[in-house]
Amino acid sequence: MKRLLLPLLAVAFAVPAFAQPATPLDGDWKGRSDGGSCNAPLDYLISIDTGIVDGSAFDTTAHGPVPNLRHGAPPPPGPGLWQIHGVARGNSFSLLSVASTKGEAQQRMKLDVTVQGGTLTVRESGGCGRTATLTK
Predict the structure, then answer these.
(1) pLDDT of 41-66, one tens digit each?
(2) In this predicted model, what pLDDT tens digit does every residue of 113-135 receive, in sequence order?
(3) Which of 27, 44, 92, 119 is most buried by its number of CB atoms within 10 A?
């Protein structure tokens, strides 16, 4: 029992030593983008914890399936939810955004983020070319 207790205590005290320090960007960031060329604004909710970014962006104007009264081909739906991941380092960094879509029609987009005072400016580098301003 004593042989097991000593390594267990060593591991318990070593874990906090590997923890990352908090960054000034840590917290929850919210904002809304312009419509871009698609005229579909996104609401952003991003959480940053010790530099690790996790969040989402969603289109509040996106609707589910509706009856097709004209019996014609409906327009293809655009993605209504984007998952955002990455690492926040410095005053300028990139994030990866992946659309929640079915099948093999996976869409990915790079987001360029710049920090200006107490705001994050998020720009799509492709797609609709939206720009969002996020605050804590």
Answers:
(1) 899 999 999 999 999 999 877 666 66
(2) 999 989 999 999 887 899 999 99
(3) 44
Q: Which CATH number fits domain 20-60+78-135: 1.20.950, 2.160.20, 1.10.1330, 2.40.128?
A: 2.40.128
The pLDDT-based confidence of 112 (bands split at 50, 70, 90) is: very high
The whole-number pLDDT of residue 45 equals: 96
The 3 state secondary structure assigned to 53-95 is: EEEEEEECCCCCCCCCCCCCCCCCCCCCEEEEEEECCCCEEEE
- Domain locations in the chain? 20-60+78-135
What distance in Å separates the CA atoms of residue 68 and residue 75, rounded to the nearest whole number? Answer: 11
Please provide residue 9's backbone torsions phi and psi, each rounded to the nearest 5 degrees. Answer: -65, -40
pTM for the model stands at 0.73
Backbone conformation region of residue 128, classed left if phi is above 0, alpha if psi is from -120 to 50, else beta: alpha
Give the CB-side neighbour count of residue 118, counting CA atoms within 13 A: 3
Rounded distance, CA 136 to CA 127, Å? 26
